[in-house]
Amino acid sequence: MPTFASNAALLIIDLQVGINHPRLGPRNNPEAELRVGELLAAWRMKGRPVVHVRHISREPDSVFRPGQSGCEFQPAFTPLASEAVFEKNVPDAFCHTGLERWLHVRGISELVIVGVTTNNSVESTARTAGNLGFDTAVVADACYTFDLQDRNGRVWPAEDVHTLALTTLAVDYARILESAAVLAGS
């Protein structure tokens, strides 16, 4: 069973209203938000650091475009005043946000990453975290993604995209865990 430092940070990525837009298509892991909620409750109960990441898109047709409701956090994941919030314009939560400095200033070296989408913002952030030397875990059942069409027109099911992204991360960047193991070790 994994164990986590008392200051291990829970990093919640892009759980905003817009991620539920029907145009994004079929997704996997329908209970991911429940798992994120359980982890968030456990982190809050123990007074551990929680970091919320919000995507602020530069694209006019994005579900995360500023000035519309899709940009807001989902009600279940509204940050508390004591919790950090970082806004990003690209998939990687470390890119031009100050997140790395914020973590170092607080002596945080361990990250538990959850959120959306597995093969985009979660993967990009976990890769950078691993490259920067953070002890990184991605919680498989607390992340999800959508069906993805490749450049040849083939549609890959969300579960396959999710599994492949996590498999790639497990090679060099992060431990891949299930929420039950994280909760047991926290």
UniProtKB/TrEMBL annotation:
The organism's place on the tree of life at top rank: Bacteria
SUPFAM superfamilies, per database record: Isochorismatase-like hydrolases (SSF52499)
Molecular function terms, GO-annotated: hydrolase activity
PANTHER family in the record: ISOCHORISMATASE HYDROLASE, PEROXYUREIDOACRYLATE/UREIDOACRYLATE AMIDOHYDROLASE-RELATED
Isochorismatase-like domain span: 8-151
InterPro entries: Isochorismatase-like_dom, Isochorismatase-like_hydrls, Isochorismatase-like_sf
Membrane spanning residue stretches: none
Keywords: Hydrolase
Protein name: Cysteine hydrolase family protein
Listed EC numbers: 3.-.-.-
Source species taxonomy: Bacteria, Pseudomonadati, Pseudomonadota, Gammaproteobacteria, Pseudomonadales
Primary enzyme class: hydrolase
